[in-house]
Specification:
Elements (H helix, E strand, L loop, with lengths): L2 H6 L3 H24 L4 E2 L2 H6 L14 E4 L3 H14 L3 E4 L16 E4 L6 E5 L4 E4 L5 H9 L3 E2 L11 H6 L17 E7 L5 E5 L30 E8 L1 E2 L3 E9 L2 H12 L6 E6 L21 E9 L2 H20 L5 E2 L4 H8 L4 H4 L2 H4 L4 E4 L2 E3 L5 H14 L6 E6 L4 E6 L1 E4 L3 H20 L3 E2 L4 H10 L2 H14 L13
Parallel strand pairs: 2-4, 3-4
Antiparallel strand pairs: 1-2, 5-6, 6-10, 7-11, 8-9, 8-10, 12-14, 12-15, 13-14, 13-18, 16-20, 17-19, 17-21, 18-19
The structure holds flavin-adenine dinucleotide.
The site of flavin-adenine dinucleotide has 35 residues, from strand 3, helix 6 and strand 10.
Length: 494
């Protein structure tokens, strides 16, 4: 029905709506011209599927969902959206558990999962080039053929490698190399205005995807910006050999301070590919929801230290170091014990990508499908005091303090997070979890921690504390790259 017809009928109140409908139809028609009839929709049941995630963030319907298949389509789409000032939210699987793909201001969800080619895999120069839709499961399969690996999150294997990496996500079994974003070697990006840019070595030689250095690090313009500065269309990543001999050392203890002491001591020898500790509640599969007290005789902390060696002698040397550390910690009078790590949980964290945890059912099946986190990088020497505060906050709200501490690049990135299941079907329980998580986050920020993949609630807390120069620079860069504020608007809290 056109606006004109409505007007003739004299239904003045309906004119505006009809005009809107008219505009919506015109936009949908244009989107279909760009990506093809079957790849753009405004059907409500499809919009609904993209309106929510597992987090506490309030759902919001997009106006359109678009599936892109080529870089050229994305360029055309961005030029059109920029001209019409329509928000665009890049999306691959929506499993970020921070509401990062929820379209705060409606507009287009741009689903990139069909762009899932592994463009290049160089087993000698040790890098791969991938499209945004390449999943962790898919990349793992391709790499295992060459006995190679990347860093696998404990999230769903169907989620995107590049979305995790550009959001400063974390992998497991590769923590010695740092965050997954530190493995990025080159990028191709469509700007919000539709231009195609490249950063890193591929900008100078289109076949060279091996390094972002020693050039100015313009890749930083697209990492940690939560999809608000451009659409990554190709990503170069460093990959690594898998040494044949895996050995996992496990300990437990009663106090968080003892666990920190052990982890600090062991991390200084740089023998682990992953050095992680989890509270008793996170070692349970599934995480108890609501809170359930730990059995009195159970240790409060478990740790696994994953090591890989090329030869038996190397493995023995690592074992010798680990035994030395354990003895030192025992001699200090700490409660560290060599222990058996719960089997199911250990498998879930060392056989990745994993259906065991990755299905999310084991994380949140007791919670009723809701899961979120305060996920942070926190100076490791603040883990223990923060844990004590988080524990009070979580238990006070009837939630399990299911907390994890990991060393990334030794003590340089101390990862501290609390995977928090909740009952998403119940608004009160969802709000309870949100409040707990935000309270935890404030404690962490006050101790010098920094959240990764922050939901808008966290961005507000970060910006409250930010240096004015940081905020000014951020606003200027955002305005420079996205003059009409159409890319995932509202997410940065500025
Ligand atoms: C149980 C569970 C455990 C998890 N464990 C981990 C973990 O250990 N480590 C970890 O890092 N994560 C973890 N996650 C979070 C998440 O699963 C991963 O980070 C995942 O790889 C994100 O991929 P996705 O396809 O779901 O991204 P999405 O949620 O679709 O997108 C993530 C962000 O990237 C943006 N984006 C998407 N594509 C592009 C693009 N091409 N260009 C620019 N921006 C883009 C989006 O707008 C959004 O801001 C976990 C999640 C669950 C449910």
């Amino acid at each position: 029905m056109t606006a004109k017809k409505e007007d003739k009928k004299g239904k003045g109140g309906k004119v505006v709506k009809a005009l809107r409908t008219d505009k919506k139809e015109r936009i949908l028609k244009e989107l279909k011209t760009i990506v093809g009839e079957k790849n753009a929709t405004a059907e409500e049941h499809i919009l609904y599927a993209y309106s929510y995630d597992m987090s506490f963030v309030t759902p919001k319907l997009p106006d359109y969902v678009v599936m892109a298949h080529t870089v050229e389509e994305i360029q055309k789409l961005m030029k059109f959206s920029n001209k019409e000032k329509i928000p665009v939210v890049p999306y691959t699987s929506g499993t970020n558990i921070g509401g990062l793909c929820i379209p705060e201001r409606g507009g287009i969800i741009l689903d990139l999962k069909k762009m899932n080619k592994i463009v290049k895999l160089d087993p000698e120069a040790l890098y791969a080039v991938i499209e945004p839709g390449v999943s962790h499961g898919q990349l793992a399969n391709a790499l295992y053929k060459y006995n190679l690996r990347f860093g696998w999150p404990v999230g769903p294997p169907s989620s995107s490698v590049s979305s995790c990496a550009i959001s400063h996500g974390i992998g497991h079994m590769n923590a010695r190399y740092g965050l997954n974003s530190q493995e990025i070697t080159s990028m191709e990006v469509v700007l919000p205005t539709g231009e195609l840019v490249r950063v890193g070595s591929c900008a100078i030689n289109s076949d060279a995807w091996h390094s972002c250095l020693p050039m100015p690090q313009m890749d930083g313009l697209f990492k940690g910006w939560l999809g608000s500065t451009g659409i990554v269309t190709k990503l170069g990543i460093a990959i690594h050999h898998i040494p044949p001999l895996l050995k996992i050392f496990t300990v437990s203890c009663d106090h968080v301070d003892d666990m920190y002491s052990y982890m600090l001591n062991l991390s200084n020898y740089e023998i682990c590919d992953d050095l992680t500790a989890v509270s008793w509640w996170l070692s349970q599969v599934p995480i108890p929801y609501p809170y359930k007290p730990k059995p009195e005789d159970a240790p409060e902390w478990f740790s696994y230290a994953t090591t890989f060696s090329f030869t038996e002698k190397e493995k023995e040397a690592r074992t010798e170091i680990w035994e030395k550390v354990v003895n030192e910690e025992k001699n200090k009078g700490t409660s560290i014990q060599v222990t058996h790590y719960p089997e199911e949980a250990l498998k879930a964290r060392t056989q990745l990508p994993s259906q065991i945890v990755g299905s999310t059912k084991n994380y949140c099946k007791m919670g009723g499908a809701g899961i979120s986190w305060p996920g942070t990088f926190t100076p490791a020497n603040r883990w223990a005091p923060i844990y004590k505060e988080w524990k009070k906050i979580m238990i006070g709200r009837n939630l399990s303090p299911s907390i994890r501490m990991s060393m990334y690049r030794g003590v340089h990135y101390g990862m501290l997070r609390a995977m928090t299941p909740f009952n998403k079907k119940n608004p009160k329980e969802t709000e309870n979890a949100r409040q707990a998580i935000v309270e935890c986050l404030k404690v962490d920020l006050d101790n010098g921690g920094m959240p990764y993949k922050p939901p808008v609630d966290f961005a507000a807390e970060i910006n409250k504390r930010a240096h004015p120069g940081y905020l000014m620079l951020m606003k200027r860069l955002k305005k420079f790259l996205d003059p009409n504020d159409i890319m995932n608007p509202g997410k940065l809290g500025i």
